[in-house]
Amino acid sequence: MDLIPEILASVAEFEGIRHVIHAHPETGYEEHQTSALIADKLAEWGLEVHRGISGTGVVGVLHGYQSGRSIGLRADMDALNMQEQNDFAYRSRYAGKMHACGHDGHVAMLLAAARQLAFKPDFKGTVNFIFQPAEEGGSGAARMMEEGLFERFPCDAIFALHNWPGLPAGEFATRPGPIMASCNEFRITIYGKGSHAAIPQDGADPILTAAHIVCALQSVVTRNKRPIDSAVLSVTQIEAGTSFNIIPDTARIGGTVRTFSLEVLDMMEQRMQEIVLLTAQAHGCNADFSFLRQSMPTINDATQTAFACGIMRQVAGADKVNDAVEPTMGAEDFAYMLAKKPGCYAFIGNGAKPRSGNHVYGLHHPRYDFNDGIIPLGASYWVKLVTAFLDDAEQLSDANQPMLQSLDDG
Ligand SMILES: [Zn+2]
Ligand SMILES: [Zn+2]
Fold first, then answer.
1. Which of 40, 56, 280, 371 is the most exposed place for a label (fewest CB within 10 A)?
2. Which helix (H) or strand (E) is 180 found in, with range?
3. What CA–CA distance (Å, rounded) separates 132 from 141?
């Protein structure tokens, strides 16, 4: 492992910052104290600070010794609406709010890197430290894109890290191409005609229609897409009726679709609409179909991912980087940034051994906690990634040996 000594020496400070943020969790677009803490620290270290970006976002800009290319690093800042069950000293002070996804740790790692780079701006070009609001279902990244983040803060490439429980501390994992899925919600309402349950010929049964629709929707996954393309369609809600002897007027169906490509997503939405409307018609009913795209697939650029993996190997060790991790059907809104700029989203191991008790608690678990022990690894990765990216544009194509050696003298 090749960690930056100054970062190792100041680790207590960043653990302290992490614990303050953990104790004061704020959810999407309400990260007022969190973003003020971040902005104040960046200003203290001499970065150019932009507050109030897309609500509560913060961007810190750091210029090197001469102009050059630019890089964007993203950390999300928001917590979740859930009750923490940990009992350590820095547990959440706010009832029903918790940093259960480790975004407190993402902030700490990026701040540690910002301070290190501010003290040693040994690069040409510009680093944009992007502290994003509302990752957890608030579409903070999409809003930053709509509001012109990259027009205001140009970036040639962008990178993000997410901690991953179950992956050993000290390791990284990522992959080129899709790494997280698109997340979409669908809602269907079937309008029939209510009647006495014993006189069905007087009505149009929305429940029988709904049952046909639920079955037929699965054919989209098995019959309409190529078998080698991944997708999942889950009906998770079905609602109708008030009594055993009444055929109701309406039935409602809800669920989610996940895909790794927009082409498959477009096809599935189209086929689902046809199945819903025509199946309803076949049963003498009408239907409404709505399809809400909540997050697009997170797709890593192959070149930038190979480059980032080279830095990970240098920092963590050659055998500590999985560059072909299995993609997950979860979603991540950094996807919206990756749709605009090439880059790499990677997992940093939060630990595969229990940190307390007998379990490794997963993300969004009430006993989850970010592993402070990985702050130096994440921060060292950020610093070396920036230095390598900005110091030699030629390195874009490959993380090759001469560059890795030149980094060793830091
Ligand atoms: Zn989360
Ligand atoms: Zn998260």
1. 40
2. strand 177-180
3. 7
Domain 182-295 adopts which CATH fold? Alpha-Beta Plaits (3.30.70)
Each residue of 249-282: pLDDT tens digit? 999 999 999 999 999 999 999 999 999 999 999 9
| Residue percentage of the chain with pLDDT more than 90 | 91
- Enumerate residues 6+ apart whose C-beta is below 8 A from 353: 168, 360
Range(s) for CATH 3.40.630.10 in the chain? 5-180+297-407
Q: Which of 356, 352, 344 is nearest to 311 (CA)?
A: 344
- Taking the CA of 363 as reference, the closest ligand is 1
From ligand 2's centre to the CA of 101, what distance in Å? 4
Task: Reply yes or no on whether the pLDDT at 13 is more than 90.
Answer: yes
User: CATH 3.30.70.360 in the chain, residues?
Assistant: 182-295
CA of 67 to the centre of ligand 1 (A): 36
What gap in Å lies between CA 268 and CA 43, rounded to an integer? 48
- How far apart (Å, rounded) are the C-alpha atoms in residues 145 and 138? 13
Ligand 1 centre and the CA of 135: distance in Å?
8
Q: Per-residue pLDDT tens for 224-242?
A: 999 999 999 999 999 999 9
Per-residue pLDDT of 74-91, as tens digits, reads 999 999 999 999 999 999
In the predicted model, is pLDDT for residue 398 greater than 90?
no
